[in-house]
Amino acid sequence: MSEESLAVPKGSWTTGLFDCFEEPRNSCIACFCPCIIFGQITEIVDKGSTTCLTGGAIYMALRGMGFSCMYSCCYRGKLRQQYSLPGTDCYDCLIHCFCERCSLCQMHRELRNRGFNMEIGWEGNVEKKEPAMTQAPRAGDAMIR
Is the pTM of this model over 0.85? Predict the structure, then answer.
């Protein structure tokens, strides 16, 4: 997926940390089952190398031990690096320790605002942006004199 094809410029967040109600459905999912939102984020940020299911399962396992905020904090850092977004590792850590669900919603909105359909995963987004040829080109008719 080409960075140039995305309409949002690098260097600034497109949405605020506390703009959770821009997407009420996702805010509810993040509140009651954050593993779903986090899984979608990991698949896009990792460009398909981590599936939504794997990312969500790891998140839930770490959540059970009280360490999910450290894991999700790392993905905020990856997202910031990919799009040159402002922030620091320390700030990411603080946000995820105290407002993790707000941060997950912000990350989800950021990726959506940058052209990703979060429900179809990485492969679906790649196929949507670069449609494969479904038919071979038709060979031209022979020249007749």
Answer: no
